[in-house]
Each structure stands twice: as C-alpha cells, then as structure tokens.
Design goal:
211 residues; alpha+beta; AOC barrel-like; eight-stranded antiparallel β-barrel; 18% helix; 41% strand
C-alpha cells in the first residue's frame, strides 16, 4: 500500500510539471513561427522574393515618354558587286509569288532617297516571302543607327509587308539604347523599284514612343 501511494504521488508530480511546461512550449513555438513569417518577403509589397522584383523606373533613367518621327530611305540592293541582300532559300518553281524565299539583308538607311545621301544607319535582318496569294513579306529588322546621339541605338521592326500596296504599315516592337521600351509603327511606301534588277528604294516613316 505504501509503495502504491508513493508511485501515485510521483506520477501526480510528473503530470503537474508537464502541465506547467506546456504553456511555455506553446508560447515559444508561436514566437518562432511569427519570426519566420516576418522574414519571408511579401510579393505584394514589391520586395525581393526570388528571381524578380519591382524597381523604380527612374533608376534606369526612364522619365517622361516622348513621340519621335524619323523619315528614312531603305535601299535594298540585289544587283551588282555591292549587293546588300543574300538569298538563303529559294522559292518553289511553281510559286507565282516566290513563296518560301528568304533573304538576309544589311541595307543602308539614308536621309534622302539617293543612295549617295547621308548614311544614318543600316537595316539588318531578313525578309521572307510568306504569302501564296500575293507578294507579301514577313519582315524582321533592326534599324541600327550610326548617326549623332542615336549612334549605337536600334529600333526593331517586325511585321507583314504586302509590297505592291501603295501604303503599308508594320509595328515597332522594341529597341535598345535610346529606344529601350520603344513601341510604335512604321509607314512604308515604295519610292523606286527597278523591275529588271530587283533593286528597291523604300521610304520609311517611323513613329516611335520612347524615353
């Protein structure tokens, strides 16, 4: 009986001690959890939360957006020893629209319609004859400027050009240098086309929003 009484008393003390410790352990656990949560960045606040973060655009030098208009002449030279066009695929013999042909270009961009006028840049990229119903080009070009403060900056044009339409339009999809975040469009009209050689001079009016 005495032994049973001592065992019961010891068990009671153990239970009471555990009961007193539980609130402290629970409080400690809650405190640690709050600290961990507070250390995890919140995406809604724009804080760094991995591989992406929001930044102030002024840190990139981006201030008020402006609209600029450039008028350039694009010279596509197929003939002669100074050709600026290289075909990389040939069209099917059955195609009346040269469907499937792809040309890589490094065309001069000048201030005036004459090739001898001031060089302001080069149109570098390619165009593909991408229509079976008409002579329609898919054009992808960087207008790489070499003149004045725009030297080293580019405007990127990507779009559809149905060449026998009097006025065509393609989008400006971006740029670099002074044309970072560029957007806008180009209007195109043929200034001169030599049906024998295939050489062409085309007027480009570029309307571009940029910082």
């Amino acid at each position: 009986h005495t032994t049973l009484s001592k065992s019961t008393t010891s068990l009671t003390h153990t239970v009471l001690s555990m009961a007193r410790l539980l609130p402290n352990a629970l409080s400690h656990f809650i405190t640690i959890s709050i600290l961990i949560i507070s250390l995890v960045p919140n995406p809604a606040t724009g804080e760094n939360h991995g591989f992406v973060k929001a930044i102030n655009r002024k840190k990139l030098g981006l201030r008020k957006e402006k609209l600029s208009h450039f008028r350039l002449y694009w010279h596509d030279i197929i003939s002669g020893s100074n050709a600026t066009v290289v075909p990389v695929t040939q069209a099917s013999n059955k195609s009346a629209t040269a469907f499937g042909q792809i040309n890589v270009i490094d065309d001069p961009l000048t201030e005036g319609p004459e090739l001898s006028s001031k060089l302001v840049g080069r149109a570098q990229g390619f165009y593909a004859l991408a229509s079976q119903q008409e002579v329609g080009l898919l054009m992808a070009m960087n207008f790489a400027f070499v003149e004045g403060k725009y030297n080293g900056s580019t405007i990127t044009v990507l779009g559809r050009n149905p060449v026998f339409n009097k006025l065509r339009e393609m989008p400006v999809i971006g740029g670099s240098g002074l044309f970072r975040f560029a957007r806008g469009y180009v209007q195109i009209k043929t200034h001169k086309f030599d049906i024998t050689s295939g050489d062409a001079t085309v007027e480009y009016n570029i309307y571009v929003m940029h910082y």
